[in-house]
Design a protein that fits this description.
Elements (H helix, E strand, L loop, with lengths): L2 H9 L16 E5 L27 H13 L4 E5 L9 H13 L5 E6 L4 H10 L4 E5 L5 H8 L4 H13 L3 E7 L9 H11 L2 E5 L11 H4 L3 H11 L2 E4 L7 E6 L4 E6 L12 E4 L4 E3 L7 E3 H6 L5 H12 L23 H4 L2
Parallel strand pairs: 1-2, 1-10, 2-3, 3-4, 4-5, 5-6, 6-9
Antiparallel strand pairs: 7-8, 8-9, 10-11, 11-12
Helix pairs in contact: 2-3, 4-6
The structure holds S-adenosylmethionine and iron/sulfur cluster (SF4).
The site of S-adenosylmethionine has 20 residues, from strand 3, strand 5 and helix 12.
Amino acid sequence: MSASGAASSALLSPARPLVDPFGRAISYLRVSVTDRCDFRCVYCMAEDMTFLPKAEVLSLEEIDQLASAFIRRGTRKLRLTGGEPLVRRGIIDLVNSLGRHLNSGALDELTLTSNGSQMARHAEALFAAGVRRVNISLDTLDAARFARITRWGRLPQVLDGIAAATAAGLKVKLNTVALAHENAHEIIDLMQFAARGGHDLTLIETMPLGDIDQDRLDQYLPLSTVRRQLAERFTLTDLPHRTGGPARYVHVEELGLQLGFITPLTHNFCESCNRVRLTATGQLYMCLGQDDQADLRAVVRGANASEAALDAALDEAIARKPKGHDFIIERRGAQPAVKRHMSLTGG
Ligand code: SAM
Ligand code: SF4
């Protein structure tokens, strides 16, 4: 091989990690496999959402191709999300296919975030494909409130999903969006429910993503307040483990519970950010709170699509990863900081 050939093959080496200009290695990819959902949660979607035409959405093969390109470049953790990932037709085929990267040792974890509605029928297949942990969203244990928050969801179906996931051997982490007027008084009940089932629980502050039908300030419940109140009743011990994301964890001694707080608005977590997000249409967002993106669908659908072209596109995109986000919920009626919905980028 010529000297220049050797140099370029070294340049394309799978071992060459993706590192952004601030020295952060990209090891975590979240992929929204669909913008569609069988719920219409009030903080996430408007009731009359218009979804993307199918032709714009990546095929399962294209998702596999893009995810595999990231894995070649050092992604160790892959999360499928949405919209609701389990409403995407063929989702188990995709999970089975991506499972090969677990078997080869290239990937440490393949996981997904789900609303739980379809979990009962998919839990065993997910486990068989190599998934070991799932996040399931649960904002309340009250059926009427659940119907109000999700608009279209039914609580028993989700509780069945949580039970089925656990029975299949999946470790379940529950995600609860903290909503001032809906579930603030239910947080301890949710913590007890999680502890009884052996699940972890993470509380999430509402983020200003996308136009919804309500004012975000009405929903916003600062988790600093929640934490202060919990500390009056429980012994909370800070846990050192971090995931490179916005979550901070405590151990709740009295319940034997690991409790996470995701506080993108009140806490700056950007310095350790190790993740990027791929939308259902193949746009790569280097930051959840910024609009800049790279069109990877154009690369996979382009006439010159190749591993080298994808590699070059990933390099170019990661070179633009910004230092941090710019979320603010400060004024009543303020425009969302970014216009796209959470269901497009994935939570
Ligand atoms: N449909 C799945 C679910 O609900 O878990 C996966 C997608 S959903 C967009 C991912 C997570 O984002 C969920 O836990 C959801 O509660 C959360 N989420 C959605 N919109 C949000 C917002 N505006 N602020 C904070 N969290 C939000
Ligand atoms: Fe659907 Fe999840 Fe958004 Fe709720 S939070 S509407 S379940 S995508």
